[in-house]
Design brief:
Layout: E1 3-12, E2 15-25, E3 30-35, H1 41-48, E4 54-61, E5 64-65, H2 71-76, E6 79-82, H3 94-103, H4 111-128, H5 130-133, H6 145-157, E7 163-167, H7 175-192, E8 195-200, H8 203-209, E9 212-217, E10 220-226, H9 227-232, H10 234-259
Bound molecules: adenosine-5'-triphosphate and magnesium ion (MG).
């Protein structure tokens, strides 16, 4: 078990955003977290990173209690996040944005050795994102929405995390780009062995990709199971899969067309 969230309560002032959330992530898995707007998904990710402080409960990462650790220490212990809304640096180039990710590495080295190591890591990450390789000198703010999302994920990968937190990576993207992002997440998980906790509105594709999934409603986990179990669950289908399925059909049609 790489991550264990035990009975977490988080607040914004008097508003209770997480009400006793418990969740487990096994090393090497992709775990999807789905739920409607305002359910508390982003709050859960922010609580994991210590940006929002849990009032009760515990976060155990790799056997250690990180609940009260400062955010930068949590990041250095091997958790990286690609936050909602991407948050890349628009005025920096793609290369510079990626270098910022390298600074958050678990074992930063200084001097020539550090530079060589960063270049090597960047090479590894760029293999996952060929579109970014072509755009290393371009400013982040001029990338398309999908490319910015890829940059945010690539930057998070440069810190070589053991656990990658993704907050709605497919938000606002066209179906074809959504598929690409999901394919890349699978590749990251399979080729780098990175454990992924994926927050998504696009429930159908997220659950197809994920080994396990959790469903949140107003600050609580109401269901969990394997991706396949949740896809087959009637409540999940009624609440989260209607729009998602339509979108997937479009995406599949598009992909078939591209292949021909
Ligand atoms: N900074 C804040 N101050 C006060 N309330 C907040 C703040 N951030 C979030 N909330 C509230 O906490 C609840 C959970 O929000 P959160 O952003 O975690 O939801 P979410 O599941 O990520 O939703 P979405 O799918 O829309 O991103 C919501 O009711 C939201 O209004
Ligand atoms: Mg959110």
């Amino acid at each position: 078990m790489i991550l264990e969230i035990r009975d977490i309560y988080s607040y914004y002032g008097a508003i209770c955003a997480l009400r006793g959330v418990s969740l487990e992530v096994t090393e090497g898995e992709i775990v999807a977290l789905i739920g409607a707007n305002g359910a508390g998904k982003s709050t859960l990710l922010m609580t994991l990173c210590g940006v929002v402080r849990a009032r009760r409960g515990a976060v155990i990462f790799d056997g250690e209690d990180i609940t009260r650790r400062p955010t930068e220490k949590i990041i250095r212990s091997g958790i990286a996040v690609a936050p909602e809304g991407r948050r890349i640096f628009p005025h920096l180039t793609v290369r510079e944005n990626l270098q910022m990710g390298g600074l958050a590495s678990r074992d930063p080295e200084r001097g020539a050795a550090g530079t060589a190591k960063l270049a090597h890591k960047m090479e590894g990450v760029l293999e996952l994102f060929p579109r970014l390789r072509e755009r290393l000198a371009q400013r982040g703010g001029t990338l398309s929405g999908g490319e910015q999302q890829m940059l945010a994920i690539a930057r998070a990968m440069l810190s070589e995390p053991r656990l990658l937190l993704l907050d709605e990576p497919s938000l606002g993207l066209a179906p074809l780009m959504v598929r690409q992002i999901f394919t890349t997440i699978r590749e990251i998980n399979e080729s780098h062995g990175t454990t992924v906790l994926l927050v998504e509105q696009n429930a159908h594709q997220a659950l197809r990709l994920a080994h396990h999934g959790y469903v949140m409603v107003t600050g609580e986990v109401v269901l969990h199971g394997t991706g396949a179990e949740l896809l087959a669950n009637e409540e999940v289908q009624a609440a989260y899969l209607e729009g998602g399925r339509k979108e997937t059909k479009q995406g599949e049609t598009q992909q078939r067309e591209t292949r021909q």
